[in-house]
Amino acid sequence: MKTPLRVAVTGAAGQIGYSLLFRIASGAMFGPDQPVILQLIEAPIEKAMQALQGVSMELDDCAFPLLKGQVLTDDPNVGFKDANWCLLVGAKPRGAGMERADLLKDNGKIFIGQGKVIDAVAAGDARVVVVGNPANTNCMIAASQAKRLPSDRYTAMVRLDQNRAQAQIAKKSGRDLTDVKDVFIYGNHSPTMFPAYAHATIGGKPAAGVINDTAWLQGAFCETVGKRGAAIIAARGLSSAASAANALVDHVRDLRTPGVVHSVGVKSAGEYGFDPEVWAGMPVRTTTPGSWEVVRGYAMDDFAKTKLAATNKELVEERALVVDMLKG
Ligand code: NAX
């Protein structure tokens, strides 16, 4: 029997948490022979902690053979202790009439605090994945507090956008989803992100040639993928949760599977023109479990370059809004 992995999840009693925890405990994220201990962290609010108790009871009631323990806490020092994976899902939602700058600053405080604690108490091999929005900038903030853990341990989730793009291309072409490969997301997890279609293939042939509709690829496709979150809120009355949890399962599983190329928000080293201070979605290849390298050299045409510049600009602006907080 393998040693259990300690998996810390913030926002564990939230919508995404309710879909996510059961997938982790069932083995979908770390494999069918990898036991886990769930370290569930909620905000220090009575209602949230009470809801977490309910989720924990349901986890018990699933009798998952791989679930070897649960920790329920509102103290990050307890929740992140010795954690091998820190999944930062919890964040403050944007309230009515709230400015984007205020949202960034409010969440900035949460991710500075959690970043400090993770660096102090998590396992030496800890990996951190940020889902809570604005995910790329929150990831940059958490990583900025690290003195011990290197910055390549911190990734932001853009996988939901990749999955959305793959599904749209499959639908448009009328082909099976598994025929669609190499659709990667560049930039921010926001409507500015760029779902690059030029290198995608369908059944081994260039997707753009199979679809043969540049206006759709540059227009409706980019728009649908970029604004999918808002469309789901409009239809469901709630933001995407099950698909977000599923994307996080994909993100972590693929980050542990050498050879897989997938879209991940990582610290830029200037690839594809991204500012070196921001965390940008890019195609990465998993090298060893939990480690990755950016896949460089995908050629970008003028349309792609314009989209990359726009999403980079937004990331730089987000960083500028919180940069003073990073120093304190
Ligand atoms: P919910 O509001 O349902 O749940 C969030 C939970 O986080 C709540 O239970 C809250 O009490 C908790 N929380 C707040 N502050 C906390 C803190 N300091 N420590 C621990 N827990 C804390 O939101 P949910 O729908 O689950 O979404 C969570 C986050 O994911 C949001 O920021 C959302 O915008 C973001 N998303 C990111 C996506 C991505 O692709 N990167 C897609 C889905 C989702 O929109």
Structure, explained:
This protein is of the alpha/beta class. The chain folds into 2 domains: 5-156, NAD(P)-binding Rossmann-like Domain (Rossmann fold); 159-321, Alpha-Beta Complex (L-2-Hydroxyisocaproate Dehydrogenase, Chain A, domain 2). It has 11 helices and 14 strands. The strands form 4 sheets. Strands 3-2-1-4-5-6 form a 6-stranded parallel β-sheet. The termini are far apart.
Question: In percent, how much strand structure appears in the residues?
Answer: 15-25%
User: By helix and strand content, what is the structural category?
Assistant: alpha/beta
Mean pLDDT level = 96
CATH superfamily of the largest domain: Lactate dehydrogenase/glycoside hydrolase, family 4, C-terminal
Shape label: globular
User: What is the percent of helical residues?
Assistant: 40-55%
Number of strands: 14
Cα gyration radius (Å): 19 Å
The largest beta-sheet arranges its strands as: 3-2-1-4-5-6
Order of helices and strands: EHEHEHEHEHEHEEEEEHHHHEEEH
What is the C-level CATH assignment of the largest domain?
Alpha Beta
Which architecture name of the largest domain does CATH use?
Alpha-Beta Complex
Number of helical regions: 11
Bound compounds: ligand NAX
Largest sheet: 6 strands, parallel
**CATH-defined fold name of the largest domain:** L-2-Hydroxyisocaproate Dehydrogenase, Chain A, domain 2
Q: How many discrete structural domains? A: 2
Which stretches of 5+ consecutive residues score pLDDT under 50? none
Give the terminus-to-terminus CA distance.
44 Å
